[in-house]
Design goal:
Low-confidence stretches: 1-30, 97-101
Number of strands: 21
Shape: globular
Number of helices: 4
Helix content: under 10%
GO molecular function, one term: peptidase activity
Structural class: mainly beta
Distance between the termini: 50 Å
Pfam families: gag-asp_proteas (PF13975)
Order of helices and strands: HEEEEEEEEEEEHEEEEHEEEEHEE
Protein name: Aspartyl protease family protein
Strand content: over 45%
Oligomer: single chain
Keywords: Hydrolase, Protease
InterPro entries: Aspartic_peptidase_AS (IPR001969), Clan_AA_Asp_peptidase_C (IPR011969), Peptidase_A2_cat (IPR001995), Peptidase_aspartic_dom_sf (IPR021109), Retropepsin-like_bacterial (IPR034122)
């Protein structure tokens, strides 16, 4: 049997190969940017890709975003089989596509004081980090831990050294920590009583990466 010509085998982005149809996709699916603007009863007011907010009920889908549940100040959405928790007032998150699962590199630029201050997320909630290579673990103040709804008082009591001496603290495990498009899971952290202007991004996160620094730029490449 004479092989089909290239023109016959390729049509409208489809390839016929061995009797089966192989769809040639234009590229990876893009992540959806979603924010939770409010809740009413069991409905969630979602902002998808910057469009006008719209109320959705559990089970409804809009622009590829499905609302799974809405209760209290929390909504659970699903995009391409991946679920994400949203909370009222948090920054928009990217769900689905490579923006969630494909990130391998973080590139940071120091501020005028030489500090690296990336924004990120802990367990899906927005935080302001400060990179601290001298910190063994991610360090969070008690007030920030409460804002993040971390049940830290069930953690392991520990004693840690600070600039003001040794204090009692709690060691916990964070479900997820995200900076940019890179997310890692099950990260050790410590919750301390003293107030801190930032969440210290310590070595329990940083050692997951190969670190390089050149002048005012730091690159973290996922191991």
């Amino acid at each position: 049997m004479r092989p089909a010509s290239r023109e016959r085998r390729h049509k409208a982005g489809q390839w016929l190969l061995g009797g089966s149809l192989l769809l040639m996709l234009a590229g990876p699916a893009l992540a959806q940017q979603v924010a939770l603007a409010g809740l009413s009863a069991n409905r969630a007011l979602l902002v998808i890709e910057g469009a006008s907010p719209r109320f959705m009920s559990p089970g409804q889908t809009s622009q590829g975003v499905k609302l799974v549940s809405a209760q209290g100040d929390v909504a659970v959405i699903e995009v391409e089989g991946r679920r994400q928790i949203l909370r009222v007032g948090d920054a928009p998150v990217h769900v689905g596509g490579r923006a969630v699962v494909g990130g391998q590199r973080i590139v940071l630029t120091a501020d005028a004081s030489g500090h690296f201050l990336p924004q990120g997320q802990i367990n899906g909630r927005s935080v302001q980090f400060m990179v601290d290579t001298g910190a063994t673990l991610i360090a969070i103040s008690e007030s920030e831990a409460r804002r993040l709804n971390l049940n830290f008082e069930t953690g392991r009591p520990v004693r840690i050294s600070t600039a003001n001496g040794t204090v009692n603290a709690y060691q916990i495990q964070l479900s997820s920590v995200r900076v940019g498009d890179v997310q890692v899971y099950d990260v050790a952290a410590v919750v301390a009583p003293q107030p801190m202007p930032f969440v210290l991004l310590g070595n329990s996160f940083l050692t997951r990466f190969q670190m390089q620094r050149q002048n005012d730029q730091m690159t973290l490449e996922k191991r």
